[in-house]
Amino acid sequence: MAKADAGTGKTAESAKDRHRKILETAARLICEKGYEGASIQDIADACSLTKAGLYHHIRSKEHLLLEIQNYGMDVFEEQVLSQVVAIVDPVERLRACMDKNVLLVTQGWSKEVTIILHEHATLTGDARSQINSRKKRYVRFLESSFAEAIRSGRIRPVNPTVAAFSFLGMVLWIYKWFRSDGAITPDGLSRDMQDLFFGGLERAPAPLPPPRRKAARA
Amino acid sequence: MAKADAGTGKTAESAKDRHRKILETAARLICEKGYEGASIQDIADACSLTKAGLYHHIRSKEHLLLEIQNYGMDVFEEQVLSQVVAIVDPVERLRACMDKNVLLVTQGWSKEVTIILHEHATLTGDARSQINSRKKRYVRFLESSFAEAIRSGRIRPVNPTVAAFSFLGMVLWIYKWFRSDGAITPDGLSRDMQDLFFGGLERAPAPLPPPRRKAARA
Q1: I want to staple B175 with a disulfide (CB 3.0 to 4.6 A). Which of B16, B114, B204, B210 is the partner?
Q2: Pick from A124, A218, A215, A111: which is nearest to A173 by CA?
Q3: In this predicted model, which residue has the larger pLDDT, B167 or A205?
Q4: Residue A155: phi, psi to the nearest 5?
Q5: In angstroms, rounded to a whole number, what is the distance separating the alpha carbons of residues A8 and A11?
Q6: Cβ-defined contact of B196 to A195 (cutoff 8 Å)
Q7: Which residue among A121, A172, A200 places its CB closest to the CB of B173?
């Protein structure tokens, strides 16, 4: 068993888990009832906390929304971006990135976190800028990887910005239609989507050099 | 000038325009304040109507949401689906469909209508089924067009369901990032996206037949 913190009877790990649980419960409630519709009391009830108990964990309702989005970005960066940034070949990097992002969206976290991350424009000011700049980092990473793949002749020339947002649209739209009990498995989806997207972009292996004798002068 | 209806002083056309204007205003408000946050009074105010006046045009707040979604699907079917269903070649059909859908999303209607159509899960029961079945019709059309293109050898074999949802994800994600004052034009985006998606799917022209003499036996 993990060692308990003196006094609180809770381990550092369980406090983190607890906080994560609150964020996921709040995300589910905000998705069900809308941001305006889900009151702090509703969220406290769903977490089996008093309102005062919930305020021990969160600063305000808007800050809670920011925390859910930051939590979503933390998990994304940990499970997707940081796993692939160091891959040298740009096409392998992009393929691995698609694979990990498809797996994250299909089985790695709650659908509600994805929804809050991509559909809730309720944040304002600094909070909004903070999340937007984290999202932009991903777009820039994709754009520069596509540009690199084009420069090195690994894929045919396409618009890197359109390629980046198309990649994102394909992968992020998944939460809207994928059913974990459906015919398509997460692994199958990742493979099919990579084939669809990269199968037609990657250049065929360089042709063999022509034979030395001058055959074409005839 | 259009002929006015006796008594009301309004033409049939302007009544339709008026209704459309109410739906677009309500869509904007629901996006700004959330479905729970936007009251019927707010919507009436934004339409320069009294609450009673607004109720002359709409049945209830939930029905208004259904009307906005049906209006979105009407415009989509009129400007995209009905323009392309009759195209015989499946790849030409799918390319034209992508073109018209990109143009619709970038300049054809309000962003708020797209948001309400794709992000608001507030509808329940029959209303929800009605919109879902209209959306499913589009998915089935795409799937069957991809399947037909594969059968006829026009594109390389891919999973038609994954192709259909990838097409949709690419096209529908556009409202999240496209800026009409940005560097990418609607026409340019349509062209680049078609190239990205279909450029690698369409089969290359059949290779020239090999030369008759046996050159490779040496």
Answers
A1: B114
A2: A111
A3: B167
A4: -130, 160
A5: 8
A6: no
A7: A172
Q: Model's pTM, two decimal places?
A: 0.83
How many residues in chain B? 218
> What is the Cα–Cα distance from B85 to B123, expressed in whole angstroms?
29
The answer to whether the CB atoms of B176 and A35 lie below 8 A apart is no
- Chain B touched by A111 (CB under 8 Å): no
A181 has a chain B CB within 8 A of its CB:
no
C-alpha to C-alpha distance for A166 and B169, rounded to whole angstroms: 8
Structure tokens at B43: 């919507």
Question: Which residue shows structure tokens 């109410």?
Answer: B22
Residue B89 DSSP symbol = S
Contact B162 A196 (CB under 8 A): yes
Tokens of A75: 């998990």
Chain B interface disruption, residue of A132, A139, A143, A166, most B CBs within 10 A: A166
Nearest by CB to residue A166, choosing from B118, B158, B196, is B196
Give the percent of chain B with pLDDT over 70.
86
Residue with tokens 């089996």: A48
Residue B126 distance to chain A (closest CA, Å): 18
> Are B35 and A34 inside 8 Å of each other by CB?
yes
Residues 6+ apart with CB under 8 A from B109: B72, B75
Cβ contacts (< 8 Å) between A166 and chain B: which residues?
170, 173, 193, 196-197
**pLDDT of the residue at B51:** 93
Residues B199, A200: C-beta atoms closer than 8 Å: yes
Amino acid identity of residue B202, one-letter, is: E
Q: What's the rounded Cα separation, in Å, for the pair B148 and B83?
A: 19
Tell me the per-residue pLDDT of A116-159, one tens digit each, with 9 for 90 and over: 787 776 788 888 889 889 999 999 999 999 999 999 999 999 99
Strand-pairing partners, residue A202, are A155
Which is more confident, B30 or B3?
B30
pLDDT (tens digit per residue) in B11-38:
666 888 888 889 989 988 888 887 878 8
A201 → chain B, closest CA residue = B200
Pick from B31, B156, B162: which is nearest to A193 by CB? B162
The set of residues, in sequence order, having a beta carbon less than 8 Å from that of A116 and lying 6+ positions away, is: A27, A30, A31, A65, A68, A69, A72
At B93-129, the pLDDT tens digits run: 999 999 999 999 998 677 777 787 777 767 888 888 8
